[in-house]
Design brief:
Elements: E1 4-10, H1 14-25, E2 30-33, H2 57-68, E3 74-77, E4 81-85, E5 89-92, E6 97-105, E7 109-112, E8 127-128, H3 131-134, E9 142-146, H4 150-159, E10 165-169, H5 177-185, E11 189-191, E12 195-201, E13 204-210, E14 216-217, E15 220-222, E16 226-229, H6 233-237, E17 247-248, E18 260-262, E19 267-268, H7 279-302
Parallel strand pairs: 1-2, 1-6, 2-3, 6-18, 8-15, 9-10, 9-15, 10-11, 17-19
Antiparallel strand pairs: 4-5, 5-6, 7-16, 12-13, 13-14
The structure holds flavin-adenine dinucleotide.
Length: 313
């Protein structure tokens, strides 16, 4: 077998592993390179994934790797890709190199946490961002939502479907009077003082401490996260991105750079306003990317016309 892989996949989260499965099952030679932890690594469990609801993120990865090991043409390496150039030539953290005919980026997002102080160890455990990932786990509990923007008001109202008690903490920011009235009419309390810090033990939140006024005892808090690309490989290749940093892809996971595909949280289509950040959605986009990559390669293998007739790009 040639030492040029059909496809190199950078990132072994649900998107990258799903693409590797699709490609392995059609006997494409695949090199999957993974740096280690995925975005949800701090969380206790993956929720909202049919048949895998409640599985620890590390276990889900383990199961994915086990399934891939059945496919002889898929090679998985625990290595970070540190550089890439056209062709596609990859530099690896171990000092080696690799080459592939096509490249799939599935490098995911990382979350910066602008605050408040103390949130770090609680992230994914009692400080959350997504009601579909962790809202249900707040059933019957005392919950706070930080922020004053309309989306935060919306989230606070949504959580009243689950939590025993919801407070919106504006952290010193002004709140629209009409929105305040809607919150209060629906049982959501409002605290307007600036937030000083979160206090608790280990990953467990006990209370929110304000710059002034009494602390607020809480079991969970929804904070504002700032997602960013975990890797700069797409930028280095010159892939077009949106203002939020996401890589622009079409229906077939193609980026603006020929031969470079992207899947998972890091990429989205122009018609989708935010990445569909969920494990099952990332896996689905990886499956689509895998099939598109195989079709693209078939064109080269047999001198066939492009498979994406009618698609943009
Ligand atoms: C705290 C938290 C909890 C969450 N809980 C849920 C949940 O319950 N249910 C749900 O559906 N979704 C959940 N999500 C969202 C979920 O984590 C993502 O949607 C999903 O992980 C995206 O998969 P991905 O494959 O795109 O990226 P990731 O899972 O982030 O995987 C990307 C992989 O690429 C690797 N990588 C990056 N750069 C390189 C490089 N240069 N070389 C080699 N490898 C590289 C990384 O190490 C990583 O393994 C949660 C997110 C967070 C932040």
């Amino acid at each position: 077998m040639s030492n040029i892989f059909d496809v190199a996949i950078v990132g072994g989260g649900p998107a990258g592993m799903a693409a590797a499965l699709t490609l392995g099952r059609i006997r494409r030679s695949v090199l999957l390179l993974d740096a280690g932890h995925g975005r949800n690594a701090p969380a206790e469990a993956v929720h909202n994934f049919l048949t895998r609801d409640g599985t620890p993120p590390s276990r889900l990865r383990e199961l994915g790797r086990q399934e891939l090991s059945a496919y002889a043409t898929v090679e998985v390496r625990e290595e970070t890709v540190t550089g890439v150039r056209a062709g596609f030539h990859l530099q690896l953290s171990g000092g080696g190199t690799a080459q592939a005919r096509r490249l799939l980026l599935a490098t995911g997002l990382a979350d910066d946490l602008p605050g408040p102080r103390g949130v770090g160890p609680m992230w994914g455990r009692s400080a959350f961002h997504c009601p579909y990932c962790h809202g249900y786990e707040c059933t019957g509990r005392t919950v706070a939502v930080l922020g004053a923007e309309p989306a935060r008001v919306r989230l606070a109202l949504q959580l009243t479907r689950l939590a025993a008690d919801v407070t919106l903490c504006t952290d010193g920011r002004p709140l629209d009077p009409a929105q305040r009235a809607t919150l209060e009419a629906n049982g959501v309390a409002v605290r307007c003082e600036a937030v000083a810090r979160l206090e608790g033990s280990g990953d467990r939140l006990d209370q929110i401490v304000f710059e002034s006024g009494p602390p607020l005892a809480r079991e969970a808090v929804f904070v504002v996260n700032a997602p960013r690309q975990r890797s700069d490989l797409a930028a280095r290749l010159g892939c077009a991105t949106f203002a939020d940093g996401c890589v622009e892809v079409d229906e077939f996971a193609r980026t603006s750079v020929r031969g470079v595909y992207a899947a998972g949280d890091m990429a989205r289509r122009a018609t989708v306003p935010v990445p569909l950040a969920a494990v099952v959605a990332a896996a689905a986009s990886g499956t689509v990317a895998g099939a598109a990559l195989d079709q693209d390669l078939l064109g080269d293998d047999f001198g066939l016309p492009g498979p994406f007739a009618g698609a943009k790009g």
